[in-house]
Fold this sequence. Notes:
By secondary structure, the chain is an alpha+beta fold. Helix content is 18%, strand content 33%.
Amino acid sequence: MKKITDRQKQVLEYICYFIDEHAYAPSIRDIQKHFRLKSTKGVKDHIDRLVEKGYLNRTEGTARALEVVRDSKIAVRKVPLVGTVAAGLPLLAEENIEDYLPVSADMARTDGVFFLRVNGDSMTGAAILNGDLVLVRPQPFVEQGEIAVVRIGEEATVKRFFRFHNRVELLSENPDFEPIVYCDEDEDIRIVGKVTAVFRTLE
Length: 203
């Protein structure tokens, strides 16, 4: 089969997930709503390409006419999306979870992976923009300078993480933001996980 783009792969993953959950295919508007697109044209274009490349079959004249070609079926997992983090609650507490999003099993091999919605523009230099979703693999440590989700007291932030002998430095990827420095005796700081991917809606 011909290679597909990352966005086409995400659309195909969602269609596979939807069919597994409901036993019928999503409509164009179901897909539009899921990806928060302004119109159905972008959805139709992606579906046209997936049909042309042999990943989908389509029957004209019906709203739910999509069929995934057996050889192209992608194993997907439901991954929780964490939005605003409520004070005093674990990051993945039900009250913090906005939704569950499908992602290919290859990208979510580790138990406990989750999406976090980014708030702010402190990481624009790393191509992480306000409103993006970052995929996070839970782990208690990262290598120096890797991008991590760090819990500081009751809040979570996405920064480059550095640990030195007596301090922790959290660096932004935006010159408008100063480094955040904590000494070991400062408030509770811990690494929640490593950022492994970034997802963005372009329309």
